[in-house]
Amino acid sequence: MQELTHYINGAHVKGTSGRFADVFNPATGEVQAKCPLASVSEMESAVAAAEAAQPAWAAVNPQRRARVMMKFVDLLHRDMDKLAEALSREHGKTLPDAKGDVIRGLEVVEYCIGAPQMLKGDFTDSAGPGIDMYSMRQALGVTAGITPFNFPAMIPMWMFAPAIVCGNAFILKPSERDPSVPLMLAELMEEAGAPKGILQVVNGDKEAVDAILQNEVIQSVGFVGSTPIAAYIYAEGCAQGKRVQCFGGAKNHMIIMPDADMNQAADALVGAGYGAAGERCMAISVAVAVGEGTADRLLEKLVPKVETLKVGPYTSGDDVDYGPVVTEAAKANIERLVQTGIDQGATLAVDGRDFKLQGYEDGFFVGPHLFDNVTPDMDIYKHEIFGPVLSTVRVDNYEDGLKLAMDHEYGNGTAIFTRDGDTARDFANRVNVGMVGVNVPIPVPLAYHTFGGWKKSVFGDLNQHGPDAFKFYTRTKTVTSRWPSGLKEGGEFSIPVME
């Protein structure tokens, strides 16, 4: 049995708490490793190393810090296959999806190469008689991030790359379900030139989270996960005077208008609803069909596509559509919610309850499910399922569809499929959701824009990556200076005396 480590001050360090979490192979259900769960003292040792290393790193000029990011990008490309395989082995994603996880993080690292431009301050000369004013963006110090299981490469890089290029040290507490890739990323960052102690990985559970929140040295905390935990971390972190950025749950609606291309809409729903077994915060989990005729045409296209999805382990090749969910508990929760949908009166148009994969009977596989005639009072509509389950809601008109997306407590992402520009523009302007797609089912912005939801999907006032990341990981200092006016004429040859 492999025993994983922490990565503290440039070295792999065995856990000393005596507590471990099982790391499963989701395809087989077997425990493949033990992940150490840090104690408060282990977290404190990482913080001490970060605090010692950070001032010298902040003193390195931004261009040289950016060069470390350039090298890190090269190393990510070099080790892409190795990273993807480790990610798939612990998470269950297909290899192409795992590579996409790494690449989406890599793109943020590429954006961080522009740090010299992003960290420039402002200058005003002659703000008053002999007075100049200028601002500087300076690093916070020691920062931290708590990241989820579903993107073990991308989301850590969304946090630590901008934090580090801004001159901070960063402590990463990844999910204990799939911790190997974060440990590999820390090694690569040091190979790229980051000093020891600048990026550290401390594995753990709530004890480690609370140690982060209560440590006075840590200046900021980023989090991605469920809304209840996001609310807890935001409240506790802010109470401790930290800068906090938390992203929570989602229930993403896709509106299908009568004029939409139904083949395009159905393909989009299959990819967005079932990719990564639905374990994405930007997954489309609700298809809102405007008009009975639209719903019938959509289901006619959708049902055969869902029925023929190929489910299997990542080792089966690149033509697998999605793999297992991450744990047995996740599988049980999905199956429970599916049963509530049936009990509460939804129509199960595609029934994946009896799905079994020969040779992988103990794996955490969940067959694809498609519901029709779902209503807003049902549990499968209200709650984030985080599995391969798509709900279809029928509405009479566009306004009713828009209202569904706007009335839901979550506001992470949404999309509309239509050929009408007026409708698309109205939807994008009015919907109270943070990320909107027009004929794009998963509207995750590129690295030079920012990622973030609204309503109960976010706690904090700045988004992830893009320009907001440089604001979040720096403080602005403004300097007002005055120098004596008047130029001296000629040299002074006599000894100065007090007048």
Describe the structure.
The protein has helices at residues 40-59, 62-78, 80-91, 95-112, 115-118, 154-165, 180-191, 206-214, 227-239, 262-274, 292-307, 328-343, 379-382, 398-407, 421-430, 467-472, and strands spanning 2-3, 6-8, 11-13, 20-25, 30-36, 123-128, 131-139, 142-146, 169-173, 199-201, 218-224, 243-247, 252-256, 284-290, 347-350, 369-372, 389-395, 410-411, 413-417, 435-438, 454-455, 458-459, 474-482. It is α/β, with parallel strands linked by helices. It has 2 domains: 2-248 and 457-481, Aldehyde Dehydrogenase, Chain A, domain 1 (3-Layer(aba) Sandwich); 252-438, 3-Layer(aba) Sandwich (Aldehyde Dehydrogenase, Chain A, domain 2). The strands form 6 sheets. A 7-stranded mixed β-sheet has the order 15-16-17-14-13-19-20, sandwiched between helices. Strands 10-9-8-11-12-22 form a 6-stranded mixed β-sheet, sandwiched between helices. α2 (62-78) packs antiparallel against α4, α3 (80-91) packs across α4 (95-112) and α4 (95-112) runs parallel beside α6 (154-165). The radius of gyration is 26 Å and the shape is globular. 51% of the residues are buried.
**Subunit arrangement of the protein:** single chain
> Which homologous superfamily in CATH is the superfamily of the largest domain?
Aldehyde Dehydrogenase, Chain A, domain 1
Any idea of the CATH topology of the largest domain? Answer: Aldehyde Dehydrogenase, Chain A, domain 1
- How much beta, percentage-wise? 15-25%
Averaged pLDDT: 96
What's the total number of strands? 23
Q: Estimate the helix proportion, in percent.
A: 25-40%
Summed up, the helix count is: 16
When the domains are counted, the total is 2
Describe the global form. globular
User: From the 3D coordinates, which CATH architecture of the largest domain would you assign?
Assistant: 3-Layer(aba) Sandwich
The chain-level structural class is alpha/beta
User: Are there runs of 5+ residues with pLDDT below 50, and where?
Assistant: none
